[in-house]
Amino acid sequence: MQRKSVSKPRVGQALTVAVERVLRPLFRILLRNHMSFKAFVDIAKHTYVEVAAGEFGIPGKKTSVSRVALLSGMTRKEVQRLLDAPAPNDAEAGERYNRAARVVAGWVRDGDFSDADGNPKVLSLQDSRGGASFAELVRRFSGDIPFRAILDELLRVRVVEKVDDNTVRLKIRAYVPESGDADKLNILGNDVADLVATIDHNLQHGAADPFFQRKVMYDNVPVEALQEFQRLSGAQAQSLLERLDKWLSQHDRDTSGTSGTGQIRTGIGIYYLGRYGVAETSGAEVVSTGGNVLLDALLDRMDKPQAQALLARLDQWVSQHAHDASPRNNKLIDRGQLGPPQVPYDRRKSERNGIPQTDSKTASRTPKDRQS
Q1: Hey, which bits of the chain come out as E strands?
Q2: Which residues partner with 295 through β-bridges?
Q3: Residues 278 and 204 in one domain
C-alpha cells in the first residue's frame, strides 16, 4: 500500500505562516504612509502576473496569457489588463541613492581621499591644481553629475558638514537618507528584495550551493544593555562592511578596471533588529522581540569567515547581558533557516582569541535535525 505524502500540506501551512510574518512589518509601513489595502492589492496583482509571465514559462515557448492565468488563478482578461499596465517605477530615487552612497564609500576607502590610518580627509570643494577635492571625488565615483548636487544631498542628510566656505568634512561614514522620504523607501524595496532572494536561493539550492545566512539573537536582554549593544554591533558591523567594500572595489570593473567574464551583483547586508516593548501577534500567541543581528550574504559567500567571526563576537557579548543565557535561548542558528549551515560555531566550545571554534558534529547536521 502506497503511503500518502504529507509534505505538500505542511509546506503550504509553513508558507502561509511565513507570508503572514513578512507582511506584518510591511503593513505597518504601508499604513503609516497611508497606502490603502486596494492600492496594495493592485501592486500585488501586477507583480504576481509579472513574475509568473517572466520567470515561470515553459522553456522554448512564449508564455501565454492562458498559462499566466492558470498559474496565478486570475482570469485571462485580468491577466492581460495587468500585463498591459505600466509598472510603478522610482528610478530617480534609486539613482540618487546609488550616486551619493558611492561618493561616501570612495571617500572612506580611496587613499587619495583618506589618510594613512584610513580616516577621510577634509577636502576643499575644488582644487585648481588637480589634487584631492570634493569635486574630484564626485567625478571619480559618481560620473558627470555636478558635484554641488551631491554636496547639497549630503549636507541635507547631515553626512557631511562645511568647515568653511570652501572646505567640507565627512561626519558619518555611510550614506542613509532621511527617515520617511522616498529615498529611504527605495532602500526598503532593494534590501528586503535582496534578503528574500537569498532565502529563496537557499530554499531551492541550499543543499548544494548555500549562501551565507545567519543571525544571532537572545530574547531576554534587559533594556539597559541595548544602547551598548547598538553601539558595539554598529561599530563592528561598519568595520566589517568597510573591509568587504574595499575588497569588492578591487574586483569591480567600474572602480578598478579589472578584467573577467560575466557581470554579477554581489554584496553583504547587516541589519540590527530590536524594539522596545512591541509584541508580534499571531492569533492568540504573543512573542516579544529582543536584540537581533541578521547577516545575509547576497549572491556570494566570499566573506563567510569574517562574517562568522563578527557573529561570534556579538553572540558572546549578548550572552553576557541576557538574563537567561541558557542553551535553549542561544538562537545563533535560526531553526527556520533552510539549507545546511556553513561553518557554524557553538559558543560553549573551546575559544581561541575570543572566537568560538567550529563544532564538526554541529557542522554535519541535516536540515531535518535543525528544524526539530
Answers
A1: 123-124, 160-164, 167-170, 213-217, 267-273, 279-282, 285-288, 292-298, 351-352, 355-356
A2: 214, 270
A3: yes
pLDDT tens digits, the chain, 372 residues: what are they? 444 555 566 888 899 999 999 999 999 988 887 788 888 998 899 999 999 999 998 888 889 999 999 999 999 999 999 988 876 665 555 566 678 888 988 898 888 898 887 789 999 998 867 678 999 999 888 877 889 989 998 998 888 999 998 999 998 877 766 554 676 777 888 889 999 999 999 999 988 999 988 888 888 899 899 889 999 999 999 889 888 888 888 888 887 778 888 889 898 888 888 765 444 433 333 222 333 333 343 334 445 566 667 767 777 776 676 655 444 444 443 433 434 434 443 333 333 333 333 333 333 333 333 333
Coil/strand/helix, residue 168:
strand
Same domain, 226 and 356: yes
Q: Supply 179's cell numbers.
A: 527617515
Identify the CATH number of the domain in which residue 155 sits.
1.10.10
Instruction: Report the distance separating Cα 237 and Cα 218, nearest Å.
Output: 18
Same domain, 285 and 300: yes
Residues 295 and 351 in one domain: yes
For the chain, what's the residue count? Answer: 372
How does 321-350 read in b/e, with b if 16+ C-beta sit within 10 Å?
bbeebeeebbebbeeebbbbbbebbbbeee
- Report how many domains make up the chain: 3
β-strands 213-217, 292-298: how paired? Answer: antiparallel
β-sheet bridge partners, residue 204: none
Cell matching residue 321: 547581558
**255 and 113 in one domain?**
no
